[in-house]
Amino acid sequence: MSESIVDTRALEALFFVSDEPLTASVLAQALELDRPSVEALCDRLANDLEERRSGLVLRNVAGGWRLYTHPDTAATVERFVLSSRQARLTKAALETLAIVAYKQPVTRHQITAIRGVNSDGVLRALQDRGLIEEAGREETPGRPVLFGTTPGFLERLGLPSLASLPSLAPLLGANADADPDADAEEPTDPDDGDVEAEVAVEPPPDGADQA
């Protein structure tokens, strides 16, 4: 058996046992290879998976490589995930997450101004899920906390970086110049803190559930 086949087999095994994207440097250390060799192995494995019509694909996301289910299996995977009744994000959580993703770094007040409701509970829930995190403090009176998305957010969506998020310009139209930071009242959001089963998260377009 050739050395390259052994290395590719070992590489695939590493992806299988990992619960997060693996960078080229981590893989190089584990396989005792240089980074160019590891990158070539990852490209080879990705091509091999596609050529043998595997149910898995290898993608470079969030600064590393990770196995995902193939897009063609999305309907089957979605049925399985929904039938297993795994916890899902509510509409309020999805709405708040989208605001953080596109406006980051953003304060709680700015999020509240855009949504029109108090978002404290939803922000805590998203932090607990590992989708957002504190990203410093704004240099204004009171120094409010700034929020941003985590690498786990990119991983969940199967994106290599925030630059890959779809553009909002076509959707904004005449409202593009509206001030999202205008003062707003903070009524209580009935969905705050509830992240269980109101609205299911749509599966990423590349069938992003981990293998």
> Strand order within the widest sheet?
3-5-4
Span between termini: 26 Å
Q: Give the count of helical stretches.
A: 9
Q: Which CATH architecture of the largest domain is right?
A: Orthogonal Bundle
Mean pLDDT: 79
| Overall CATH class of the largest domain | Mainly Alpha
User: How many strands?
Assistant: 5
CATH topology label of the largest domain: Arc Repressor Mutant, subunit A
What class would the helix/strand composition place it in? alpha+beta
Report the sheet-strand fraction.
5-15%
Q: What is the radius of gyration computed over CA atoms, rounded to a whole number of angstroms? A: 20 Å
Quickly count the domains: 2
Helix content: 40-55%
Which word captures the global form? elongated
Largest sheet: 3 strands, antiparallel
CATH level-4 homologous superfamily of the largest domain:
Winged helix-like DNA-binding domain superfamily/Winged helix DNA-binding domain
Secondary-structure element order, as H and E?
Answer: HHHEEHHEHHEEHH
Low-pLDDT stretches:
174-188, 192-205, 207-211
